[in-house]
Amino acid sequence: MKRDWTKKTTRGAQRTLDAFTAAMLNALTGKPFEQITVNELCEKSNYPRATFYNYFDDKYDLLHYIWHCLNRQIRLEQYEETEPEQRLFVLFDRAYDFIEAHQGTLNRIIKHNAKESFLLFHFRVQLGDRVREMFDPNICRYRDQVPHEIIADHYCNTVLLVLEWRFLHGNDGSKEDTLRYLEHLLGALNAKSLHEF
Amino acid sequence: MKRDWTKKTTRGAQRTLDAFTAAMLNALTGKPFEQITVNELCEKSNYPRATFYNYFDDKYDLLHYIWHCLNRQIRLEQYEETEPEQRLFVLFDRAYDFIEAHQGTLNRIIKHNAKESFLLFHFRVQLGDRVREMFDPNICRYRDQVPHEIIADHYCNTVLLVLEWRFLHGNDGSKEDTLRYLEHLLGALNAKSLHEF
DNA sequence: TAAATATTTGGACACTTGTCAAGATCTCAA
DNA sequence: TTGAGATCTTGACAAGTGTCCAAATATTTA
Predict the structure, then answer these.
(1) Is residue B16 a contact partner of residue B51, using CB atoms and an 8 Å limit?
(2) Which residue from A156, A189, B47, B138 could staple onto A128, CB 3.0 to 4.6 Å apart?
(3) Which residues of B touch A147 (CB under 8 A)?
C-alpha cells in the first residue's frame, strides 16, 4: 500500500489506477492469479513498470486495492437506523445483490482460479472489518454472554459462508433459500436477541 | 505439491523434508513469512536451491506441507463412535489441547506474523476438509433444512473462530469459557439436533 | 505567463525465482 | 559383494522482482 486509498486522487492518478485495475481483472479471466506478472499488467495497460511500483508494492497489493474498491460499492450506511439483528440481513441483502450483479465477471475469474481460494481471502478480511463496525459493543447486547468480537466475526463468517456456497461453489438457488439457511444457522442468537428486547 | 505427502518417504527424503521444515519454523520466529526467501531456507538447512524445488513448488508449498504434518497430529479417529453433535466437541477438545501444547512456538511465530493472517489460512482449509468428513451427509440429520456442506463448514468456522480468538488474538481464558462461547454460538443447531433424537 | 514544485517515466542494477539435464548417491535383488 | 535402476543433488540459466536515479512531463504557485 504505497498511498492512502481513502484519500482523493488526481484525475491522472485515477486514470492510472483504473488502467491497472482493468488489466488485472482482464488477466484474471484468462489465467490463474499466480501466473500473472507485473510485466504483463504493464503491457496490457501501456504503463512502465516504475509506474506500477509507484502505486503498488506488488500484484497482491493491486488485488487488495481492487477488493477495496469493490467493497466500497456495497453500501451499508443506512444500517444505523436499524436494529442490530436486522443489520445482518441488510448486509446479506446488499452483498447478495452486489455479487449477483457481478456474477458474470466472477464466474470467468473463478473458472481459472477455483483453487486459489486465497484470492477472495482479503475481500473477506475487509468485509469483516466493516461488519465488526456494524456490531459495535456499545450497541449490541450480547456482551455478558460472548465477547462482541466473537459475535461480529461469527456473523461475518456466517453471511460469507452462505454467499460463498451460493456463488462460489456453483450452487443454484433463490435468494430466499439462501436467506433461510442463514436464518437457520443463526437461529439461536437471533431468538435470544429478540427475547432481550 | 511435487509429491504425495501421504505416501511413505525414504529415510533420506524424510531427513531433507525435516530440515526444510525446521528451517522454515526457525525463520518464522524471526521475521514475517513474506520476507523469508528460498535462499535463506537453503542456507539454514545446508541444501542447494535445486533440492528445495525438488520437494516443493515454492515457500507457500512448504508451509502447506508443514500444516499438513501438524494437522495429522490432531487425532480425530475415534469420532465414529460418538454422536454427530458430540463430534464437534471432540474436535474442539483435541484441537484446543494441541494448540495449547504448541503455544510457545505459536506465539513466537505470530509475534512477527500478526498481520499475515493468511499464514493460517491453509491450515483452516485442511482442517475444514477433515471436519467435512466428520459430518458426512449419510450420518447427519440436517439434510432437509440446510445443505450438509454448509453445516460442516459452519461447524468448522465456528470451532476455528473461538480457537483463533483464544490463541491468536491474545485473549486469555479457560478452556471451559472458550467451550461455552462455542456452545452459545451453536446453541440453536444443537438444541434442534438433540430434539431430533 | 513563467518559475517553482511535484509526479511520472525509462533504463540499469542487484537480487530472487523456478527449471533443467547431468552427475552423485542410495537401494535392493542376484 | 556387486551393479542396474531408482532416487537425490547440483550448478547454471532465463525470466521475474523491486529499487534507484536522473531525465521528462505535469501541476501548482506567484
Answers:
(1) yes
(2) A156
(3) 165, 171, 181
How close A29 comes to chain B (CA, Å)? 23
pTM of the model: 0.87
Q: Considering only alpha carbons, which residue of chain A is nearest residue B158? A: A154
Grade residue A189 by pLDDT with cuts at 50, 70 and 90: low
The answer to whether A185 contacts B150, with C-beta atoms less than 8 Å apart, is yes
On chain B, the residues whose CB falls within 8 A of the CB of A162 are 150
Question: What is the spatial distance, in angstroms and rounded to an integer, between the CA atom of B62 and the C1' atom of C5?
Answer: 49
**Rounded distance between C-alpha atoms, residue B182 and residue B189, angstroms:** 12
A132-165 pLDDT per residue, tens = 888 776 666 555 688 888 988 999 999 999 999 9
Query: In chain A, count of helices (H) and strands (E)?
Result: 10, 0
Burial A103-131 (b: 16+ CB within 10 A, else e): eeeeeebbebbeeeebbbbbbbebbbebb
Hey, what CATH topology would domain A11-67 get?
Arc Repressor Mutant, subunit A (1.10.10)
**What is the maximum alpha-carbon separation in chain A?**
60
Domain-by-domain residue ranges, chain A?
11-67, 81-196
Burial classification of residue B189, based on how many CB atoms lie within 10 Å of its CB (0-12 exposed, 13-18 middle, 19 or more buried): buried
Q: Residue B125: list chain A partners with CB under 8 A.
A: 117
